[in-house]
Design a protein that fits this description.
Keywords: Methyltransferase, S-adenosyl-L-methionine, Transferase, tRNA processing
Number of domains: 1
Distance between the termini: 48 Å
Protein name: tRNA (guanine-N(7)-)-methyltransferase
EC number: 2.1.1.33
Strand order of the largest sheet: 3-6-5-4-7-8-10-9
Bound molecules: S-adenosylmethionine
Number of strands: 10
Shape: globular
Structural class: alpha/beta
Catalytic activity: guanosine(46) in tRNA + S-adenosyl-L-methionine = N(7)-methylguanosine(46) in tRNA + S-adenosyl-L-homocysteine
CATH superfamily: Vaccinia Virus protein VP39
Family: Belongs to the class I-like SAM-binding methyltransferase superfamily. TrmB family.
Length: 238
């Protein structure tokens, strides 16, 4: 195991200055495999917050529906989706280096080509790198719930965030969130219902069934072991 803050690891999470963050960057302990993955595969999969606007056609060498996921954690469910839907291109954004290492390691070994990754604050990436009306699907699965009321302001789902996401979706595009925390599900529903350019696929005020394209995630399984429920929310951009 290595401490990635020890100085001999040149890959850093990218973000801009802001007063409230939706995450804490933990001094990441990485396995040797995760660490080596950066040397082996970051060149193939990594994108930089400071690399300017993403041009999907140039990045992927083709024109295909584009899916963006924020906070993929250890990345197994995102990798499964990229493998299951080779006709689409996937962008993952995560601040946690061990998760990024694990994802690019497994993607590289599996020869996955329709995936790229930012190791950065997703809100900064959305603002600086993702053009308007670029995305066919947006995914946010089990975002940090910030249980305590005094921390609710750190929840990533806020009206301004939803407006930002909506602006990045094509008309007809899909917005998909899931959480295992009922109070956060209610908050998501309230914020999403208030956005006039989104239409709830399950009908106003309703949660959706988990769609077949979303595998169970690591965090979801952890919640299930603790007896949590799961709430999926699916909206169409209008
Ligand atoms: C509770 S975990 C869930 C991970 C995964 N989606 C799952 O279901 O297993 C939430 C993840 O979101 C990431 N995250 C939180 N805020 C973020 C941000 N602004 N940009 C990128 N990643 C973020 C955290 O680092 C964490 O890995």
């Amino acid at each position: 195991m290595h401490d990635e803050s020890a100085g001999d690891f040149p890959y850093r999470t990218e973000y801009k200055k802001k007063s409230i963050r939706s995450y804490v960057i933990r001094a990441g302990r990485m396995t040797e495999g995760q660490r080596r993955a950066f040397d082996n595969y970051w060149g193939q999969y990594g994108l930089s917050l400071f690399g300017g606007q993403l041009d999907p056609r140039e990045t992927f060498g083709r024109e295909a529906p584009l899916v963006l996921e924020i906070g993929f954690g250890m990345g197994d469910s995102l990798l499964a989706m990229a493998a299951a839907e080779p006709d689409k291109d996937f962008i993952g954004i995560e601040v946690h280096p061990p998760g990024v290492g694990r994802l690019i390691n497994n993607a590289g070994k599996a020869g996955i080509e329709n995936l790229r990754v930012y190791m950065a604050d997703a809100v900064d990436v959305l603002n600086d790198c993702i053009g308007d009306a670029l995305l066919d699907r947006f995914q946010l699965y089990f975002p940090d719930p910030w249980h305590k009321k005094k921390h609710h302001k750190r929840r990533i789902v806020q009206p301004e965030f939803v407006r930002l996401i909506r602006s990045k979706l094509k008309a007809g595009g899909l917005l998909h969130m899931a959480t295992d925390w009922e109070n956060y599900a209610e908050h998501m529903l309230e914020v999403l219902e208030a956005e006039p350019q989104l239409e709830n696929i399950a009908g106003s005020g309703n949660y959706s069934e988990r769609p077949a394209f979303r595998p169970e995630t690591k965090f979801e399984r952890r919640g299930q072991r603790l007896g949590h429920g799961v709430w999926d929310l699916l909206y169409k951009a209008i």
